[in-house]
Amino acid sequence: xxxxxxxxxxxxxxxxxxxxxxxxxxxxxxxHLVVYRALSATVCLMVDGSSLPSRDWFRTVDAFxxxxxxxxxxxxxxxxxxxxxxxxxxxxxxxxxxxxxxAQKTTVHNKKTAALTINPEILRLIGDxxxxxxxxxxDGEALMRTLSxxxxxxxxxxxxxxxxxxxxxxxxLIEINEEVKKMCASHFTNIFFLD
Length: 195
Hints:
The protein is α+β, with helices and mostly antiparallel strands. The chain is 31% helix and 29% strand.
């Protein structure tokens, strides 16, 4: 909660909610403002101001809104990212997969024929990085360079996996890392990846 209890598990933390006064011709209504956030989506709720909602009410709202708002925020982010992707030839190919909602985004396949647009060596490296990630319990990142001077980068962050193959022959590790950050910022603006 942005405005509400700091944590719904701690029964001792105070609940502080701003009051809203709605004036009509005959009376003034007092409401409390509850602000709930999941990922990058925010919902403002106005509830009866005669008394503070109970902690059980906040838990019920969290259980109901949390998963649905997270899905909605992820879907909106995907649609926004799809709108920004250009159809021209790129010096990179990527695969994104979210285990929480099974969302995926890729430039590795041709949309019309479903044929692969990268060579098997790069695809094998992406598979190897994925196998390594499945063994890790923590989030992380892996960078590899192929014999044909492609860079393959994998990121795992909060049940999201992102793989990118970049064709920049003269680039070093720092330049590739910066390029991946730029690409994440342009294609995945609302998805958080650990640095």
